Amino acid sequence: xxxxxxxxxxxxxxxxxxxxxxxxxxxxxxxxxxxxxxxxxxxxxxxxxxxxxxxxxxxxxxxxxxxxxxxxxxxxxxxxxxxxxxxxxxxxxxxxxxxxxxxxxxxxxxxxxxxxxxxxxxxxxxxxxxxxxxxxxxxxxxxxxxxxxxxxxxxxxxxxxxxxxxxxxxxxxxxxxxxxxxxxxx
Length: 186
Ligand code: PRP
Description:
This protein is an alpha/beta fold. The chain has helices at residues 6-9, 19-36, 52-59, 112-123, 181-184, and strands at 42-48, 67-74, 87-90, 100-108, 128-136, 149-153, 159-160, 177-178. It is 25% helix and 25% strand. α3 links the parallel β1 and β2 (67-74). α2 (19-36) crosses α3. Bound molecules: 1-O-pyrophosphono-5-O-phosphono-alpha-D-ribofuranose. Residues 47-50, 74-76, 82, 105-113, 165 line the site of 1-O-pyrophosphono-5-O-phosphono-alpha-D-ribofuranose.
């Protein structure tokens, strides 16, 4: 995608994280996860929709015989603020009892989505549950939540790209930038 494209115009000029930095960090995370799960029964779960690009890139850097599944939980709607209410839109297809579940997220903000999912999946008898997130926004935290694998810690700004949206747009930008306030302030 060309940097002069319409989508890039809605982001601040200086990108927060370029595609090269994303790829480099994902390689390192994949290496670490490969070591940590060498003896595990790994199921990688993509939390739809924001994590799809991170998920697809990360699992291809994990050198283990893993399986994949998808879950969709939503707390934002079309707003830039979390509603605080987590709702399951699509559940996992397979049973996770006895499995080592790695939940793969694009961003941990308030922490509510992951806190909810972790509790829910623990009750289903997973052997272990860990979290890999591309972005961590600690200033947004409303509940205690710490990811096990973090790509980048980011400031308290509204970011889009590489799967992250505003009102379902901007997910297809291949890097991460800060959305210009004029976009959501009308
Ligand atoms: C976003 C993001 C995380 C969650 C993080 O999902 O993908 O799942 O919010 O926020 P939290 O830590 O405050 O819970 P969203 O509900 O917007 O759905 P999406 O992935 O389809 O964009």
